[in-house]
Each structure stands twice: as C-alpha cells, then as structure tokens.
Amino acid sequence: MSVWTTKLRAPALGLTLATACLVAAPLQAAEKKSSKQENIGVVSGLAVGAAAGGPFGAVIGAAVGALLGDKYHRQAEEKKALAGGLSQSEAARGKLEGDLTRTQLRGEQLGQALEQSKNLEATVAFRTGAADLSEEDVSRLQTIGALAGGLGDVKVRVSGYADSRGSESFNAALSERRADAVAHVLTEAGLSPERLMIESYGEKQSKSAKGDLDGYALERRVTVRIEPAGNDAAVAQN
C-alpha cells in the first residue's frame, strides 16, 4: 500500500504543477512582463500550499502567491512613483522660490529707479520761431509720459519759453504752443491730463544779451519736470 501511494505522488505533483501554471498564467497575462516579486510569490505559494494541502493546496497557494506578489510589486512601483513626484515637487518649489526672490529684487530695483525719477527734469529745444518736435524729441517724451503715467503720486510740470526776439505777444503765444506740443505727446503716451501742470513764460525769463545767438538757443525750450503730487495740486496756465 505504501509503495502504491509513493508512485501516485509523482504524477499527482506533475498535475499539480501544470494546474498551478494554468491558474497563474491568466493572472500574469495582464502584465506584459511578470515582476520579480510576483514570480517569487507563485513559487513560494506553490511550495507552501503543497506542503499544507497537497495538490489542491498547491494550486490555491500558487494563485494566492501570484496575487500577493503582484500586489507587493504594485506597492513598490507606487512608492517609487511617489518618491519621484516628491522629488519633482521639491525641485519645482525651489525654482518657484528662486523666481520669487528674483522678482522681489527686480521690484525693489524698479521702486528705487522710480523714486529717483521724481524731481527730474528734461529739456526740449526748438528752432527759432518754431513749435514742432523732432522724432527724437517725441521718442524721449513718450518714454517720460509712460514712466510718469505709471507713477500714481506725481505731477508733471511742462514749462514753455522763448527768446527775446520778436514781440512780447508773439513770444508768449509761441512758448504756449511749444508747451502744448510737449504736453500732447505726454498725454498720448499715457499720462492723464489732470496730472499735467502747463506753464508758458514767453520771453519773461530771457537773460541773454542782445545778439547772443548761443544764449537765444538755450532759451528756445520747454522743460518737463516730474514732481511729487503734493508740490502743486493745481494746473497752472499762464
């Protein structure tokens, strides 16, 4: 009787292995390549199941082992992906902090530049008897108008002048046209008209000696001055 039983175990074991492979195959077919943990689970489950429950136990053990091995593999992959995600998050946070630092620095530099731009004065020169602006003058004035327009607490004083040649009334009208031409470019560049202080002095401030052409050239001008708003809240028109 014992001899017959011993002979029966070999075919039974072969059948068990074949059955276990058939059971485990559908589980592994879901993945193109079985994981190392899953393969170990199949073999371990097969051995433990066979020892505990014979052929039937081996089949069940192999199936359970495959499932547990696959679960362990998936957990390991999820942990790996999570670690990679955390690493990317740390890198992104570092980049964001760097960008914020650079932005703050640029903001401070811009604030300093804007603060220094207050109480600055630019001068536009004109030809004799003329009130038209050159392309270079227009470009400069557009820059000033855009800058002043972005500052909420400043006024812009535009002052027109003329030399002493010609009649007083003519020079008064000429200096006004010059100031208006400059103011027009500033407003077109974005400066609100309410923040403009327009002045025209004609020849009243001319100090050049008669016939001093170089002196006259300096007096044919319009000055543009950016000032804090508290200096003068009213628009002056002389």
Q: What would you note in describing this structure?
A:
The protein has 238 residues and is an alpha+beta fold. The chain folds into 2 domains: 1-117, no CATH class; 118-231, 60s Ribosomal Protein L30, Chain: A, CATH 3.30.1330.60. Helices cover 64% and strands 11% of the residues. It has helices at 2-29, 36-117, 135-149, 168-188, 213-219, and strands at 120-125, 154-160, 196-200, 221-228. A 4-stranded mixed sheet has the order 1-4-2-3. Helix 1 (2-29) runs parallel beside helix 2 (36-117) and helix 3 (135-149) crosses helix 4. The radius of gyration is 45 Å and the shape is rod-shaped. The chain starts with a helix and ends in a 10-residue tail after the last strand.
Q: What structural class do helix, strand and pairing data support?
A: alpha+beta
Number of E-type strands: 4
Q: What is the radius of gyration computed over CA atoms, rounded to a whole number of angstroms?
A: 45 Å
Helix count? Answer: 5
**Residue windows where pLDDT falls under 50 for at least 5 positions:** 1-24, 26-33, 233-238
Listing every helix as H and every strand as E from the N terminus to the C terminus, the arrangement reads HHEHEHEHE
Mean pLDDT: 73
Domain module count: 2
